[in-house]
Amino acid sequence: MRSLFFAATMALLSANVLSQTTAPSDRIAALQAKLPAWKSSLDHLRAQGQDISYPKVTYTILENFLPYATADLNTLVPDNWGFTPVNGSQSSMQVSHDHPHSGQSALSILNSSPQSPNRYGMLECAQTLSLTPGVPYTFSVWVRTSSPGKATLVAGHSWQFRTSIPDTQNEWRLISLTFTPTKKDAAFKPRIVTESETSGISFDDFYVCQSANPETGKNLAANPDLEQSWTQRRALNAISDMESMSTRLDAELSAALQGGKLPTVPRWTGTQRPRIDGPSFLAPTNTGTRPVFFIGYGHFDQARRDIPLFPSLGNNIIQQEAGPHFIFPKPDVTDLSLVDNLHHTLQTAAANGVAVDLLLSPHYFPDWMFHKFPQMRKQRADFFPFSVYHPAVRPFLQRYIAELLAPIKDDPALFSICLSNEPINVEEPGDFAVLAWHQWLTSYHHDLATLNAHWHATYKTFDEIPYPDPRQDHTRATPAWADWVRFNQEYFADFHKMLADAVHAVAPNLPVHAKATTWNDWRAEDIRSGDDATFFATFSDIMGNDSVNLWNFGKDAPSDGPVERGTTKFAQGWLENALSYDLLRSVKNVPVFNSENHFIFDREPRWLSADHIRAGLWQGALHGQSATTMWVWGRTTDAQSDEAGSMMERPACVEAAGRVCLDLNRVANEMTTLQNKPADVQILQSTASATWDGATGQNTLIATYTALSFTGLKIGFITEHQLEAGILPSTSIVLCPAVTHLSAAAAKTLSTYKGRLLFIATAPIRDEYDNPLIAPLAGKLIPFTSKWLSLYQSLQPELPISPVQVLSENNHASTDIQWLTQDHILNLYNPRPWPVKIHIAAPATGTNLLTGQHQDLSSSFDLLPLDVRIYRIDSTPEPDLNK
User: Fold this and answer.
1) For the chain, what is the mean pLDDT?
2) Strands of 625-692, DSSP E
3) Segments of 411-532 assigned E as strands
4) What's the rounded Cα separation, in Å, for the pair 205 and 100?
5) Which residues contact 74 (CB under 8 A, 6 or more apart)?
6) Backbone φ, ψ for residue 351 (5° rounding)
């Protein structure tokens, strides 16, 4: 019977995927025809007692994404054109196939809102054109309408150039706007604005030309005839990926049906909330209690609806949102319907082994509070619409947290609480902020004489000291600004501690974290944010964050760019997460939770490599990320939506995310061993230096961290605030990247350090107020210009040596591969956009922990771009330092 079953099944599995020249609908049909045979094979393997987790991921994605591709093929949503309703405008855009001016489609806008100041709908091209100032341009479009209302073509930086759209008697008519841009108007996006009711205005065949006459010369507009469809293009990308996935699934099932053993995957049972042990979440699984890695998605209704689907996709966590305006919609009303829905969600999640991180979302704030307390509304740089200094805010949020959590605090699927979303404490000054500032100065300095001595000032009372407006440019620091930065960090941490204490008052054992963006923790240019890793660690049970790691897009890669973006030098923006996670782990030995993990630009239309997702998640785990929810689980046909271009449009990326979650949980003990490796070297992070000489120190920090990342050493941090608390570095070497300033208290602690200080580029010579240090710190100066590779060469003689040395083909230490080893476990990662050939310095064999393959690691082998591997070294090599 088995041979007959196998023959029948494999006849279907071995069918070749249709060629790329076949019609897309036929390619989809060919894949759909294979679904029954795949399901039959999976059922057969399950009945044999096999764990079908891996092939089930691929099958489930194909089963669910094939209908999405079909829908996309049948939907024309024009590339580069989108619509935004502003300030409550009841307006929208539709794609129309009813009598277009040319081709198959036109765009129509509808508006049911009466005219009101600053309320409008905007049809906009995503492409920004660079116009030549002083030269006439004409923006034109064919229009058909019988009831335009107030609608206009607009141009200019303040929309000062306008042409109204007339009634065209429901016939197509060319409408144009000719204007001569100034320098301010040179960045131009074609836009059409609707400001009042219309039953419909149709648009087709846009034209932008450098001429005083319409439709003359070259058309500069993107997709002007609206025939290029981004939904159809994403369908073609998805079909190609799914065909490759089906080939791999055929091979995987074939091997298993011929007697191969599929891996057993430990899965969280959902019966008990995980507990924290160092960097790990320890939880009961189907194979016993052990470290569990949590990988999943945020953040809205689609994620909640798909909870029963996620285990088959390989994922085990989601993030959901609450908000005080749901609980307190009116001053005298408490509505717990949201809590009831959350309880149901948590029960469903527990039954499926899916954890739920709950974001408190204090920024969903009820308007009635602002009517009651007008001074509470302040302009801010983050999501909070309220002043964090207003005395009525804290008790209100404490009450909200108590009402929200009391009914659900014991649900085992309630994984953790995220206190705030991307918090940044840059707020317009107000009376309550000034009061808090003066109180802090009094507490921090104790007396005016001390403050005046530090500041070289002559203030007679604390109350006369001005409040530094954080919205202004403070690139030229002052002692007052240095103190304000410290005040801001301490106050914002205390505000979050209030939220954490409110959670723990209801649920003492429920872990909390905050979703601070990682760059605010270390980039000098963001020193005013109020986010400080050391201070945030005081209230955090988990070191939370929101971070970014973007692919380089292959041949389209830029030659240089911000650290979170891939370039021609690196295939992905690995540095932002690696540096930030190492900093977070250094200030508190708990798990890192990136609860808004951005691997893809919002509205990204291009194809993206699944290897980017796999490597990003794997290396995130290596640096301490034991839980993450990715942005975002949702699909849209609105090209302007924040969900456009996201994971749910990319089946191969979803497959990579699911399968790497399975991989990490199979090797959770080994990955935890690497996470727990003590730091070999530490980098000094100084708030004072970032305040006074930010740009130089930031760039040198990036180069220093990059250079260390190719040494096989575990990188840690020692922060200025840790030193102030009397914590000494734990390593024999501390690197100080362009640290020009260090607080006197931190310098006092560091002066007792018995290890070596390496000053990169310059030495710390002044305190937090730009005064000379009483006892200057001694250390070795390492010259540095601008290139991390030159710094790598300069640092090599000063650093300890990794017990495993990864060498390139010429037997030199590799500057292409990152590696880390501990207790015979070795992790390898190729961040380069090119293949790299390497070997281990001394004779050693290793076992690939995911494939089970034994390998002579001292013989040359290739790592492809974004390849990640984990080995158990069977014989520990001794480095040959003379080789």
Assistant:
1) 95
2) 625-630, 681-685
3) 414-421, 512-515
4) 9
5) none
6) -65, -25
Mean pLDDT throughout 185-192? Answer: 97
The whole-angstrom separation of Cα 206 and Cα 220 is 9
Q: Helix (H, G, I), strand (E, B), or coil: what is residue 315?
A: coil
**C-alpha torsion angle, residues 304, 308, 314, 318 (rounded to 10):** 20
Which DSSP string do the residues of 9-31 spell out, in sequence order? HHHHHTPPPPPTTS-HHHHHHHH
DSSP secondary structure code for residue 134 in this structure: T
Q: Which residue has the tokens 């000719």?
A: 178
Q: Which uninterrupted H or E stretch holds 663?
A: helix 651-666
Percentage of the chain exceeding pLDDT 70: 97
Residue type, 744: A
Q: Specify the 3-state DSSP secondary structure of 863.
A: strand
CA–CA distance, 507 with 401 (Å, rounded to integer): 10
pLDDT of 1 > 70? The answer is no
Residue 684: exposed, middle, or buried by beta-carbon count in 10 A (0-12, 13-18, 19+)?
buried
Give the integer Cα–Cα distance in Å for 614 and 610: 6
Residue 463, class by beta-carbon neighbours within 10 Å (0-12 exposed, 13-18 middle, 19+ buried)?
exposed
pTM value is 0.93
Cβ proximity of 16 and 36 under 8 Å = no
> Torsion-angle region of residue 557: left (phi > 0), alpha (psi -120 to 50) or beta?
beta
Between CA 131 and CA 653 the distance in angstroms is 38
E strand or H helix that includes residue 372: helix 367-372
Closest CA to 587 of 491, 707, 702, 723: 723
| pLDDT higher than 80, residue 233 | yes
Residue closest to 633 by CA, chosen among 293, 300, 320, 349: 300
| Angle between helix 53-73 and helix 651-666 axes, rounded to 10 deg | 170
Q: Could you tell me the two tokens for 693? A: 């000489």
Q: Running DSSP on this structure, what letter comes out for residue 551?
A: B
Q: What's the whole-number mean pLDDT along residues 237-255? A: 98
Q: Are 303 and 315 in contact (CB under 8 A)?
A: no
Q: What is the pLDDT of residue 20?
A: 54
Model pLDDT, residue 876: 56
Distance CA 249, CA 846 (A): 27
The crossing angle, in degrees rounded to 10, of helices 393-405 and 337-352 is 50
Backbone phi, then psi, for 407, in 5-degree steps? Answer: -75, -15
CB 535 within 8 A of CB 721: yes
Residue given tokens 């230096």 in the structure block:
689
Identify the DSSP state of 626.
Answer: E
The Cα 735–Cα 792 span in angstroms is: 13
Question: Averaged over 740-744, what is the pLDDT?
Answer: 96
pLDDT confidence of 666, banded at 50, 70, 90? very high
Burial environment of residue 522 by CB neighbours within 10 A (0 to 12, 13 to 18, 19 or more): buried
pLDDT (mean) for 427-438:
98
Per-residue pLDDT reduced to its tens digit, 769-824: 999 998 889 999 999 988 999 999 999 999 999 999 999 999 999 999 999 999 99
Token pair of 824, please? 């015979």
Percentage of the chain exceeding pLDDT 90 = 92
DSSP-based three-state secondary structure for 604: coil
Lookup result for tokens 């990059």 = 706
HEC assignment per residue over 672-719: HHHHCCCCCEEEEECHHHHHHCHHHHHHHHHHHHHHHCCCCCCEEEEE
Radius of gyration of the chain (CA): 30
CA distance 570 to 494: 39
Among the listed residues 651, 631, 652, the one whose alpha carbon sits nearest the alpha carbon of residue 641 = 631
Q: Residue 676 and residue 588: Cα distance in Å, rounded?
A: 12
User: At residue 10, does pLDDT exceed 50?
Assistant: no
Sign of CA dihedral 678, 684, 687, 693: negative
